[in-house]
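FORM 7B: Structural annotation worksheet

SECTION A. Query
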Amino acid sequence: MAAKQPPPLMKKHSQTDLVSRLKTRKILGVGGEDDDGEVHRSKISQVLGNEIKFAVREPLGLRVWQLVSAIMFSGVAIMALAFPDQLYDAIFEEESASSKTPIRLYGGALLSISLIMWNALYTAEKVIIRWTLLTEACYFAVQFLVTTVSLVESSRIATGAMLLLVSRILFILISIYYYYQVGRRPKKV
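SECTION B. Predicted structure
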C-alpha cells in the first residue's frame, strides 16, 4: 500500500496580515502597556529589560557637574602623584615632614575614582549615575572629616584647609542634590 502524501501546506503571510500580527503580539504579551506605562516592542525587551527604562530625564547641570568633578579629581590626582609636597603645602601651609608615599597613594586612589567619574560622564543609565554621585558625596564627606580632625589635632587654622572644608561641604550638597534628582520618578503626563 502506498503512503498517502499529505496535502501541500499553505504558507500564511503573517507579515502582511495585520490582524494575524496583532493577535500574535497579543498572545505574546507585547505591544501593550505594562503597569509602568511602558510599551514593550518584543518579548525579549520585556524579559531582559528595556534600556529606555533606564534612561534618565537629567536634571539641569548634571553633565556639567560630572565634567567638573572628573576634571577636579583628575587634576588633584595628578598633582598628588607628581608634586606631593606642593599639594600638602598648599592645603596645610607647612612643609611635609613625613614621607611622600601616603600623598602619592592618595593620588593613586583619586586617579582611580576619576576614571569612574569619566566613564559615568558618558553613560545614560540611572543606576550608574546615582552610584557615582553617591561615591563622590562619600569621598567628600570622608575628606571633610579627615581634614577637620587633622586641623583640630594640630590646633592650627590654615586658610587653604578652611577653603578646602568649605568647598567640600558645597560639593557634598551638590552631589546629594543630583543624587536625589536623578533618583526621582518622572511625573506621568
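SECTION C. Observations
The mean pLDDT is 80. The radius of gyration is 28 Å.

SECTION D. Sign-off
Analyst initials: ____
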